[in-house]
Design brief:
15 helices
Length: 316
């Protein structure tokens, strides 16, 4: 940060033109003042046709490439190398050079040879960079959209790239309460069980527990009513006047507190019809009658909504 701050006045005055390249998202790595004075160009990964073209040029070039070796490369093998490169031409060229070396006197590069060299492909991933958040976002939003196929794919992308499985388990737990909630309360138990399974048996055996949980989350009924209820309640608790707890909700363990009417008027719910003291307000006066929790019509919440509507009716 100190180095970037030193550049700022010189860039501002036009004394220097700053040109940089990075594999990281500038939003994370460049301070906002410098970034606001910069023009950002995003370079996209190369596609299979572009990578394949580069490989063929390398095979034909006799001066800077591998043209002098007289290599024979199957089309399927060339496509496989392009896929392995994952959009990075340098990776593709390095792989092609390694394959040429392994081919030896046969001078032929074919699928079995490529498959043998590609056993340990390193997936693009950075546990603290943009790709980490991109993949986690893709997993979360795929589950939210009830797409189990996409969910298990993004999960596999993260796990195979070396993501901490317990981090994923924590995110599944959050999803279970944020995006499913009481529409299917079992989701939270399944997410917790997946976390315990991963912690108990470790990886790679724990991958199926996480996959089971992610698929369940994707196909479960969805509701963000719990999430919205807490957000609204938190806003009310932090922004509005913090009123005292109503007297009838306070405990009265001492004689003085009883004389001050602590607990007076409280009705014990278990002694009431339906187990609910109808008409007894439990919110402070400024929020009396306010509804933070608004159940949806999905899953179990449909039944919860009907029950609450019945209980919220004024006593006759």
């Amino acid at each position: 940060k100190a180095q970037q701050d030193a550049f700022l006045p010189r860039v501002e005055a036009g004394d220097i033109v700053l040109i940089g390249a990075t594999t990281e998202n500038p939003s994370f790595e460049v301070n906002s003042a410098l970034l606001s004075r910069s023009k950002v160009h995003v370079l996209q990964p190369l596609g299979l046709p572009e990578i394949t073209t580069i490989l063929r040029r390398a095979l034909d070039d006799t001066e800077r490439g591998l043209g002098k070796l007289g290599l024979s490369v199957d089309d399927e093998a060339l496509t496989a190398i392009a896929k392995y490169a994952n959009g990075d031409a340098r990776v593709a060229l390095n792989f092609l050079e390694a394959a040429a070396t392994v081919a030896g006197d046969s001078r032929r590069i074919h699928i079995p040879l490529v498959a043998d060299l590609a056993q340990n492909r390193a997936l693009l991933y950075d546990k603290s960079g943009e790709e980490h958040y991109n993949l986690m976002s893709a997993l979360h939003k795929s589950m939210r959209n009830s797409d189990p196929d996409a969910a298990v794919y993004w999960l596999a992308r993260m796990l195979e790239a070396g993501e901490d499985p317990l981090y994923i388990a924590r995110r599944l737990l959050r999803f279970a309460s944020e995006d499913i909630g009481n529409a299917d309360p079992q989701a939270l138990s399944i997410a917790m069980a997946a976390k315990e399974a991963v912690h108990f048996i470790g990886m790679p055996e724990g991958n199926t527990a996480l996959a089971q949980a992610a698929i369940y989350m994707a196909v479960a009924s969805k509701s963000n009513a719990v999430y919205r209820a807490y957000q609204d309640a938190a806003e009310a608790a932090t922004r509005d006047l913090a009123e005292p707890v109503p007297l009838h909700l306070r405990n009265a363990p001492t004689r003085l507190m009883k004389e001050l009417n602590y607990g007076k008027g409280y009705r014990y719910a278990h002694d009431e019809e339906d187990g609910v003291a109808r008409g007894m307000e439990c919110l402070p006066p400024a929020h009396a009658g306010r509804r933070f929790y608004q159940p949806t019509e999905r899953g179990l919440e449909a039944r919860i909504k009907a029950r609450l509507e019945e209980l919220r009716k004024k006593p006759s």
